[in-house]
Design goal:
- The protein has about 240 residues and is an all-alpha fold.
- It has three domains: about 110 residues, no CATH class; about 55 residues, no CATH class; about 70 residues, no CATH class.
- The chain starts with a helix and ends in an 8-residue tail after the last helix.
């Protein structure tokens, strides 16, 4: 979790909301099952406004509740899985955003939250997909799963800046996949999301291997124009990882 988030939450909460959350945290510390009653009430009692770094007030308040759970390992995973399963999309989002915090608090939690990440990645809810692809997923998804998660994000229109760990985990195979995606877009006469180009450009030859440059000779004006725009954007891009 961004270290600015707890302070921003405390600053944003009203006095009544702060008192309610403090009481809810104390209840959860004393009796873990109490989280099942207070977790759904957070949005109404604390607010749902945007906070910082892609988090809402409710996200941060729910993360505080989860971090207060006096559970570890499998027991913690079981409790948050139930909250995720029976919660609405806002509650599911908060669980996903909190996974890295839970692991930081309890290292024995380790990769036990991965089933929740994978469930989110199978959905078509862009907010859940983006929430799932935080630092926890960057730590634990295997290379193939991470690549496909990035590609799905591009298909869904999720900015790659929202995906944690991309600078460290983007490899040549991901660059190839994104170059092939770009070629498919150009072949359909469509523009390519600009944020794929730093990854592709960091791996020389992947663009050429995709066949995209040849589209400038297409008999279709739409394809030619799309290729010209794509190549101009590619050439103007700084490769991922460059200083």
């Amino acid at each position: 979790m961004d270290p600015r988030i707890p302070a921003a939450l405390d600053h944003r909460l009203t006095a009544d909301a702060h008192d309610w959350l403090a009481d809810a945290v104390a209840r959860v510390r004393e009796e873990p099952a109490a989280v099942r009653a207070v977790f759904p009430a957070v949005g109404r009692r604390c607010g749902r406004e945007p906070l910082i770094a892609g988090w809402t007030v409710a996200d941060a308040a729910r993360a505080r509740l989860l971090a207060a759970l006096p559970l570890g390992g499998a027991a913690l995973a079981e409790e948050i899985t139930a909250l995720h399963r029976y919660g609405d999309s806002a509650e599911q989002r908060a669980v996903l955003l909190s996974l890295a915090l839970l692991e930081d608090t309890d290292p024995s939690f380790a990769d036990l939250g991965l089933p929740l990440v994978r469930a989110a990645l199978r959905s078509n809810d862009t907010e859940l997909i983006a929430a799932a692809l935080g630092p926890y997923a960057a730590r634990h998804l295997d290379a193939e799963s991470y690549r496909h998660a990035v590609l799905k994000s591009v298909f869904c229109g999720i900015p790659l800046a929202r995906i944690a760990g991309l600078a460290e985990r983007a490899d040549r195979e991901l660059a190839r996949m994104l170059a092939d995606f770009a070629h498919e877009r150009v072949a359909a006469g469509r523009d390519v999301p600009a944020d794929v180009w730093p990854v592709v450009r960091a791996h020389p030859g992947t663009l050429e291997a995709s066949g995209l440059p040849a589209e400038t000779e297409s008999s279709s004006p739409d394809r030619r124009d799309a290729a010209v725009r794509a190549l101009a954007a590619f050439s103007a891009t700084t490769p991922a990882g460059a200083a």
